[in-house]
Amino acid sequence: MNARLMILLTVLVLNTATAVAADEISEQEASLLALVLRQVYTDGGYTVVTPEAALSHMDTGSQEEIAQYKQYLEEEFRLNGVEVGPLVGRLLERNKTTVPLTIPSNQEQGYLVDYDGKFSNYFEEDGGGWEKWYEENPLAHGSTTISVPVYDEDSGHIMFYMGTQSHWMLGSGWIILLSYIDGKLTEVTRVMIWIS
By C-alpha distance, which of 30, 154, 170, 185 is closest to 99? Predict the structure, then answer.
């Protein structure tokens, strides 16, 4: 075999070995998730994170719907004074399907991932709903659904979806754009997707 072919095969093997499947969270994505979920509650509380990353309240099942979301989000970010380039498309593509979270819970950093389904069980038949949730878990400040975040190294921007619900008619979902420069996170802007 000639040298160029060997190099090409080596690169293909290395890329295949290190690639993360679409239904898995990479190490970088896990680090970003932990970073964007971090929140300090003055009472030592936490949010309960659903165990799958998703773009909830958005139907990403058809290319037509994805194109409409992409256009809407790009226009809204532009109206907010931000050109997001390919980030919106990358976010929608990365989150076409739900992805199981793998990050550990960190209540000291303000989040607990509901891996055992304890909190989702409150919304099963005879589960007690929000009333029982808060009665039994007074420090659990509602539920959070988050997407797999995407990061642009050139701009230092992180984009992700975050939806929160803290009672039957008290919730909202946003596509959030953060700046991550020199280890510091700053919100640039956000676009609302839904509200209840």
Answer: 30
Residue 79: φ, ψ to 5°: -65, -30
The three-state secondary structure class of 145 is strand
CB 52, CB 100: distance < 8 Å: yes
Q: Which pTM value belongs to this model?
A: 0.85
Which ranges of 19-149 would DSSP assign to H, the alpha helix? 27-37, 63-79, 87-94, 129-136
Helix axes 63-79, 87-94, angle to 10 degrees: 140
pLDDT in 10s for each residue of the chain, 196 residues: 433 333 323 333 333 333 456 789 999 999 999 999 999 999 999 999 999 999 987 777 778 888 888 999 999 999 999 999 799 999 999 998 999 999 999 999 999 999 999 999 999 999 999 999 999 999 999 999 999 999 999 999 999 999 999 999 899 999 999 998 888 899 999 999 999 9
Q: Which two tokens stand for residue 173?
A: 């979902």
Q: How far apart are the first and last CA of the chain?
A: 63
Tokens of 81: 């004074």
